[in-house]
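In response to the reviewer comment on reproducibility (Comment 2.3), we provide here a single inverse folding case reported in full, input and output, so that an independent group could reproduce the run without further information from us. The structure tokens appear first.
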């Protein structure tokens, strides 16, 4: 699942991002309403987690603008304003759920997963296929030739990113920034190690090769025979 967290409290935003990634989900952060709106309009997110009180543009107007433009991505409002009238205001502005601060992360996670199930039926947007390999983002499940493949959270995010760009060369920089959230090359073999582990799980024992190394460029996942 891919989420956008629009939160101006940097510490709270980083906590949410880290916790969501540890739960196996991708998360991006916007620190104000204007950048949050731009990302929500341009990105492909399963759920938006939006604070009500934001600089530049408040959360209510952000979500109202999305709805006016026909963007139906489910929204969970976060706010210190937790009275009934506050929750009603948030829902009427276009929110799908409302969680008052302070909150339990386990409850937030359950709510965003429920919103993803309600708001994103399993179509090509939530299920990726390359040959006989299938990745279901919502069920967090990978199968190949009907055989289920167990992946670690990082391996799942790596495979999801590769399958979203099936048939395209994915560079190390793209992987570092989108799977590991590094905006620099740490000069380690972390990518090589994870790609090797992923390849052993999705290719070894099958009569085809899907994950290819493009020498001097990066990696590509595509259907192909051994």
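Designed residues, in position order:
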């Amino acid at each position: 699942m891919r989420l956008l967290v629009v939160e101006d409290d940097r510490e709270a935003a980083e906590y949410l991002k880290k916790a969501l990634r540890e739960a196996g989900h991708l998360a991006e952060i916007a620190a104000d309403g204007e950048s949050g709106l731009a990302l929500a309009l341009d990105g492909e997110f399963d759920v938006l987690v939006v604070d009500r009180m934001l600089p530049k543009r408040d959360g209510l107007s952000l979500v109202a603008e999305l709805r006016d433009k026909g963007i139906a991505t489910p929204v969970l409002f976060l706010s210190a304003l937790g009275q009934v009238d506050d929750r009603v205001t948030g829902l009427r502005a276009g929110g799908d759920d409302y969680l008052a601060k302070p909150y339990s992360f386990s409850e937030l996670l359950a709510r965003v997963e429920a919103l993803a199930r309600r708001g994103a039926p399993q179509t090509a947007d939530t299920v990726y296929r390359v040959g006989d390999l299938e990745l279901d983002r919502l069920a967090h499940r990978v199968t190949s030739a009907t055989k289920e493949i167990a992946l670690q959270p990082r391996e799942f995010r790596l495979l999801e990113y590769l399958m979203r760009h099936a048939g395209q060369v994915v560079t190390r920089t793209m992987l570092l920034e989108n799977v590991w959230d590094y905006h620099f090359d740490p000069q380690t073999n972390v990518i090589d190690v994870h790609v090797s582990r992923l390849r052993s799980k999705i290719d070894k024992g099958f009569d085809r090769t899907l994950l290819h190394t493009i020498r001097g460029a990066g990696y590509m996942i595509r259907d192909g025979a051994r």
